[in-house]
Amino acid sequence: MKGCSDDTGGLDQAGALRRMMCSRHPDETARHSPHVIAVVSGKGGVGKTFLACNLSIALAGRGHRTVLFDMDMGLANADIVLGVEPAWTWADLVRGRRGLEQIVIEGPGGIDFVAGGSGMAELADLSEFERRRMLNAMEQIESRYDVLVMDCGAGISPDVLSFAASADTVLVVATPEPTSMTDAYAMIKAFAARRDLTGTVPVEQGAIGVVVNNATARREARDTYERLADVSGRFLHMLLTDFGYILSDEHVPLAVRYQQPVLLSYPRSSASCCLLAIAGRLSREIGGVEERQGLLSRVMRLFL
Ligand SMILES: Nc1ncnc2c1ncn2[C@@H]1O[C@H](COP(=O)(O)OP(=O)(O)OP(=O)(O)O)[C@@H](O)[C@H]1O
Ligand SMILES: [Mg+2]
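Above are the sequence and the adenosine-5'-triphosphate SMILES. Below is the predicted complex in structure-token form.
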């Protein structure tokens, strides 16, 4: 990442943000900040939204104050899976149409939720005033939560890579299908390319985790993870972490149909047991209240 000296000299957004950051006291960049988890995938339809919603609920159940952000700019639909009807989205906050209190709504299972949609694309094209408003809102969010889960869109778009870059943990969701594995590998390759370009890994080495979804058996999930980890290690020198698997379970589509997260509607289903195991693993990573680089600084990276 670039340092604090703004050599662009122009009025570009990155320069404006850098100046804003540099005007802050050094202590302000390291503060209590939520552990950010980005749920991504190469191929679409592999279960990101299902995982992001239920994982958020599982983490809230373990006592972490959790907020879920729908960051899918194309097909934002976490509200359907959660069974909530948000009136406003993140875009309404950025454009000043609504305040933080109105866009953060109560979701099921003790989580808070911020709906997304096409408005997220507006982040790349904000006025100075709107940027300040967004950053102020982010600062308020920082102090309220222990965990921020981002449900991202499918594929390797620049925005997904940027969201992943701002995360502490990236969860790449893959299924045992060859097409899903190939696309998951392409996504990890995009992280590696970014590392080769900038000299840094988007997130810490080993912070790229894999969740194998829709597996018919534990063994199949294990094989899928090992094949991904093997090729990523050998050809990209990328270290992956195994965050677990979720079995294919008929209760999952049933829960979606009734618009109730599976963890709440079928808590004893095999999918729910697998979700709780993943949450347990993540919970250990999250730990207690930590001092880490503030969200504000991470958002900076979206513009650099
Ligand atoms: N473990 C599972 N067992 C059975 N069905 C599942 C499982 N996981 C997900 N599904 C089903 O797969 C479908 C796609 O899930 P989901 O919408 O979460 O995928 P996605 O990755 O978010 O898709 P998109 O890329 O479009 O955002 C849903 O209908 C869901 O019910
Ligand atoms: Mg989705």
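Residues 1-30 have pLDDT under 50 and may be disordered.
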